[in-house]
Amino acid sequence: MCGIFGVYNYYGDAGEFRQRALDLSKRIRHRGPDWSGCVVSGNNIMCHERLAIVGIDTGAQPLTNEDETIVLTVNGEIYNHKQLEKQLKTPAQFKTHSDCEVILHMYQEIGTDVCAKLDGMFSWALLDTRTAESRLVIARDPIGITTLYIGRVSAHPETVFFSSELKSLNDECDIIEEFPPGHFFDSKTGEFERYFKPTWWDAERVPTAAVNYRQLRESLTAAVRKRLMAEVPYGVLLSGGLDSSLISSIAVREAARISAAAHSDTEDIDTRGARYFPRMHSFSVGLPGAPDLIAARKVAKFLKTAHHEYTYTVQEGLDAIADVIYHLETYDVTTVRASTPMYLMSRKIKSAGVKMVLSGEGSDEVFGGYLYFHYAPSAPEFHTETVSRVKNLHTSDCLRANKSTMAWGLEARVPFLDKEFLEVAMNVRPEDKLCSKDIMEKAIIRRAFDVEFPDAGFTPEELAQGPYLPRDVLWRQKEQFSDGVGYSWIDSLKAQADARVSDAALAAAAERFPVDTPETKEAYLYREIFEQHFPQPACLQSVVRWVPRTDWGCSADPSGRAQKIHDKAY
Length: 570
Known about the structure:
Helix 8 links the parallel strand 14 (281-286) and strand 15. This protein is α+β, with helices and mostly antiparallel strands. The strands form 3 sheets. The chain has a 6-stranded antiparallel sheet, covered by helices on one side. The relative contact order is 0.12. It has helices at residues 14-26, 81-87, 101-110, 114-117, 213-226, 242-260, 272-276, 291-303, 314-328, 333-351, 363-367, 379-391, 397-406, 419-425, 443-448, 460-464, 471-474, 481-484, 487-500, 503-507, 509-512, 521-533; strands spanning 3-8, 35-41, 44-50, 63-64, 70-78, 120-128, 135-140, 149-153, 156-163, 175-178, 183-186, 191-194, 234-237, 281-286, 306-311, 356-358, 411-413. The mean pLDDT is 93. It is built from 22 helices and 17 strands.
């Protein structure tokens, strides 16, 4: 992934604004420290900050067609780029080895229909100057794994700004929106149009199909396999919980399978990563003695990964909070809690020379893995909540995974949010996903990878490879990342907030923060820090707070330990 910034139909002199555009783009250079690019065409400016992972020798951006009438700047990875290249009706002259260049050539043939053809995570902007009135098309991936914002100046509504992060827009625009996932914007209409239309999108449509464990397993395996595309060292984030451990196990198996097989140019997916770097590296983080560190150590030993374990002190975490909020561009309590250790770990990973990691985000939303799902009143309500959580991932876990890692130029890929896997998993009847005191959360994905489960449908080849994970890890209770890194972490955050925010200040919170008023001292502190970085009212529009379903009788505290079902509930 990278960072993109641009201005369309600038209301002033674009040539004079070029240096200002470069300065604004520089604010997101942490996302792409490898190279910078800028193209000015008419009164339009397209900038790019590059993190080189695929096509590292030739993939500098912005990209252009042969006569430079089309300009493209992309943040993301297109996993099916080889398949799309074969679908081109007219053979194209590719200038680079970048997986993203195919977007430009597909657009020339089918226009905005290219959006629905892409399989990957992406935010991109394309400037088409082939007609008298230039055209801007901007698109964001189906779930919002990559971050993207669009801004305007109310005095000049004809001008459109866009950026991977808020910090490049807040000093220029008085109207800023988060770009909606699964949509494209077309300057011809001035409107957003949703291109992502999966069968499960309507939350009121409750699926009735029973789970097919083999299909579930095979679709997740395919999602991991395609994400091994890389030309740089990569690894897996391993917390020792179910989700990251499963992704790690599948990645180890698939990398071994790819590296052992004869190379073929006819493969539909890009397998260079596993061929270049067959030994899997795993990374974990926590306070000394944290539950996640202990579990991750066990999984790494079982999978035989090259394991890297990082610890941090409570004080180091507290010292990082202001920086974390600056990079996250949110004051949501649970996001800040979980992002801080991920932010610290990402810095260590990047220092080890690794640029890409696989991560386990999305599983809890898809399968109802958060402990508050135990209190769902009915199967249909359980399903409706999973759909809502998946649709809103871009405001929480996707935002965390993207910005915590990209703060240090590290790319995180999330197989659980693969659109083909989602088509399978989100169409399973909710009765098969329900959890209770007798049925552990996410039981169906656990069973799908449990070699002792008779209905899992394992092939002889799979059984010959043995278990995917140790049984106690496969059936480990859900531990939210901010808890798993060490139970004292959240306790320390609350204690710091108690010390820094007075009772009087909290009582007067509605006067100081009349919009989205914080209700706890911890929330007040994060909001205070956020407004130091982003004081403009427009910056509040994209912030969404993550809270459990209190109407189901759950605690409003986002910590998993706040739910009574947790083994170590407080």
